[in-house]
Amino acid sequence: MTVHRTGIGNRLLAALPPADLGLLTPYFQKVSFEPDAILVRSGDELDPVYFPHSGAIAFMIDMPDGQTVATTLMGREGALASFSVLGPSLSSVTAIARIAGTASLISAAKFRAAFAQSAAIRNVVQVHARALLLQLQHVAACNALHRVDGRMARWLLQLHDRVPDDRLPVTHEALAQLLGVRRTTVTLTMSKLREAGAVPSDRRGFVEIHRARLEKVACDCYALMQRKIDQMYCQELAAPQPVDAPSRESAIVAGDESRAASRAGK
């Protein structure tokens, strides 16, 4: 990873009042991560805590036979290893960067100290924890009930939510790991998506998507899950502001919604 100067692009941090954010910023170190970088291994201690500003991180379950499957995907809306506030503990998943990005990291001990002092920090952590649990529940149901093409469309849409354009830097191998299937299954499924016009191009490690058509292929899990999570964040992550000052979180959400609307119109 490469170290950079700190900045704020993370939705949880953006929701904090300045005084509460000030409990964290002196200890932040901003880093960049590349695709396939392992940020936390299963069995490692949850330390440090990462607040992504960009990119996408997948939580992977490693099976005894060598297979993997993703349980959640996290970007700038989350915090990796935030559960360390419960005390020193080991990770139950391997966190792998699927799309390159940046993050602010802080030691688990410093984060626990700030968590103990700030009701606002405790609030963003519990909102994030409930959003993560909601995603876990939907992904578990989706994996059990829905076909591979619908599930792949869901993962592609989730990745698309975390990149600035319609070309996703993701390989067939990465998709196979997300889905818990063989690469041949990914190749066959990608062919179906191309026939449906949902994936105009798929080569050289990039998947170009047509979002509106991909949404038609995706199972209902994506829209239902995102609607619930967006509602939760909008209602519960608004940081206290002076009466005449705009909410930073509202501006972030509005920007996200504007980008989503422009994509849907393509």
From TrEMBL:
Keywords: DNA-binding, Transcription, Transcription regulation. It holds the Pfam family HTH_Crp_2. GO terms for cellular component: cytosol. InterPro entries: cNMP-bd_dom, cNMP-bd_dom_sf, Env_Response_Regulators, HTH_CRP, RmlC-like_jellyroll, WH-like_DNA-bd_sf, WH_DNA-bd_sf. The lineage of its organism: Bacteria, Pseudomonadati, Pseudomonadota, Alphaproteobacteria, Hyphomicrobiales. One of its GO terms (molecular function) is DNA-binding transcription factor activity. This is Crp/Fnr family transcriptional regulator.
